[in-house]
């Protein structure tokens, strides 16, 4: 089989990520924790560095040249983000500190005023805590409840059940685009169509989709789309909420402060239009300028190509892991991203994670912020290897060899 990348292509891509060069415990690093946070290309590091060296000022406050420059770089990042997800308009993109803040904003500003006793927020069994806990908090205040649609044993969403659960009590549905544990890619366009037919807004958590798939919010047809910058090769503390303009216009502010007002009076303050209404205080300006550079970088390679590279890596890793005796993979949906959660019979996830670390291999062990999913599988924790386009087939071979060695040691 001919691969999407030649070894020379792969070398060139890896050379863009300085951190991949380092050793850990005296071994060359194998970084398989990309679903936790991704490494940053030189373009991002240099853009942030250049911003602080050359353009640093606060945004939307000063008329001096630096203030205008910083504002135009920051607002330029919003344009880049809007194009990246194919939004109708830049004003539909709110810059947040990440997915967590984006979902909390929707929970408090959109959902809470509309919730009462008997109402329901519908989500699924495979959600990250960031797409569960904010809903529980606003339900606790309003007497509403959170319900979770079931999943199949292979980690696919039971889409029929989800659709059946879209009853009139449901005031909002929230589903992940790609599971951070199972890798499952959910049929979000279909779910959005069904929700829309019933007049129920749908929020999609795109944290794990944005680094791997082309995102088109108009084609998906959802109402809210949240994602985080640091998994998309950008700086930590960056992310975005996209929402339909009509929804944003009907939403009151969540945080109050500077930069989000039109006029402040003690008799009553008036607020700026979206998106600035939702961006109180000084934002992570350098971070967003860096995120813009990350998106330019990713688009330079192309998300279709990234998807093809990662599918090859996923196939290779899956078949190699399946050959390890006693190894069980959680999440074998036909449509999945390059995330592999697994356990080995009789071996503790943390023990294996620690032994792999001694080999320079970084995987995550734990519950992956998805307790209800662990409860579904009846396990306290799993290991998770999450791959990115800068990983290689040789790294996968080193990883699987190390697992085989450790298994023999621990068995
Ligand atoms: C990482 C992640 C989040 C939370 O993102 P933050 O950057 O921590 O806000 C939410 N949902 C999913 C599916 C994730 O993978």
TrEMBL record:
List the molecular function annotations (GO) for this entry.
cysteine desulfurase activity; pyridoxal phosphate binding
Q: What is its EC number?
A: 2.8.1.7
Q: Which GO terms describe its biological process?
A: cysteine metabolic process
Top enzyme class of this protein? transferase
List residues of the Aminotransferase class V domain: 30-399
Q: Read off the Pfam families from this record.
A: Aminotran_5
- PROSITE patterns, from UniProt? AA_TRANSFER_CLASS_5
Query: What does this protein need as cofactor?
Result: pyridoxal 5'-phosphate
Catalytic reactions of this protein: (sulfur carrier)-H + L-cysteine = (sulfur carrier)-SH + L-alanine
User: Which domain of life does the UniProt lineage start with?
Assistant: Bacteria
Q: Which UniProt keywords apply?
A: Pyridoxal phosphate, Transferase
What does the UniProt record say this protein does? Catalyzes the removal of elemental sulfur and selenium atoms from L-cysteine, L-cystine, L-selenocysteine, and L-selenocystine to produce L-alanine.
Q: Fetch the NCBIfam families from UniProt.
A: sufS
**Which family does the record assign?**
Belongs to the class-V pyridoxal-phosphate-dependent aminotransferase family. Csd subfamily.
Q: Which protein are we looking at?
A: Cysteine desulfurase
């Amino acid at each position: 089989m001919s691969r999407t990348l030649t070894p020379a292509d792969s070398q060139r891509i890896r050379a863009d990520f300085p951190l991949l060069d380092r050793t850990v415990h005296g071994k060359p690093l194998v970084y398989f924790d990309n679903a936790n946070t991704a490494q940053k290309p030189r373009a991002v590091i240099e853009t942030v560095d250049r911003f602080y060296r050359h353009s640093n000022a606060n945004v939307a406050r000063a008329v001096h040249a630096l203030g205008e420059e910083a504002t135009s770089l920051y607002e330029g990042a919003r344009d880049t983000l809007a194009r990246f997800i194919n939004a109708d308009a830049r004003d539909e993109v709110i810059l947040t500190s990440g997915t967590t803040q984006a979902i909390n904003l929707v929970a408090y500003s959109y959902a809470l005023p509309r919730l009462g006793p008997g109402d329901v927020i519908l989500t699924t069994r495979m959600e990250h805590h960031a797409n569960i806990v904010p809903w529980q908090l606003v339900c606790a205040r309003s007497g509403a409840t959170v319900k979770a649609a079931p999943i199949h044993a292979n980690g696919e969403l039971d889409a029929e059940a989800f659709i059946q659960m879209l009853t009139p009590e449901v005031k909002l549905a929230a589903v992940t685009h790609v599971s951070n544990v199972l890798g499952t890619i959910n049929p979000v366009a279909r779910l959005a169509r069904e929700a829309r037919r019933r007049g129920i807004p749908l929020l999609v958590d795109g944290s794990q989709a944005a680094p791997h798939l082309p995102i088109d919010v108009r084609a998906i047809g959802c109402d809210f789309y949240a994602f985080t910058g640091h998994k998309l090769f950008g700086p930590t503390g960056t992310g975005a909420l996209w929402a339909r303009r009509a929804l944003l216009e009907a939403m009151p502010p969540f945080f109050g402060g500077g930069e989000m007002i039109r006029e402040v009076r003690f008799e009553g303050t008036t607020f700026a239009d979206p998106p600035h209404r939702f961006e109180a205080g000084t934002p992570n300006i350098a971070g967003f300028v860096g995120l813009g550079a990350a998106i330019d970088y990713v688009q330079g390679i192309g998300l279709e190509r990234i998807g093809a590279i990662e599918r090859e890596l996923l196939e290779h890793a899956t078949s190699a892991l399946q050959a390890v005796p006693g190894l069980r993979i959680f999440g074998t949906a036909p449509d999945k991203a390059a995330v592999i959660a697994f356990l080995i019979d009789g071996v503790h996830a943390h023990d294996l994670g620690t032994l792999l670390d001694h080999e320079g291999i970084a995987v995550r062990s734990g519950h992956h912020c998805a307790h209800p999913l662990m409860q579904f599988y009846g396990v306290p924790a799993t290991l998770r290897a999450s791959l990115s386009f800068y990983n290689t087939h040789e790294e996968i071979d080193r990883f699987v060899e190390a697992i085989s060695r450790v298994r023999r040691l621990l068995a």
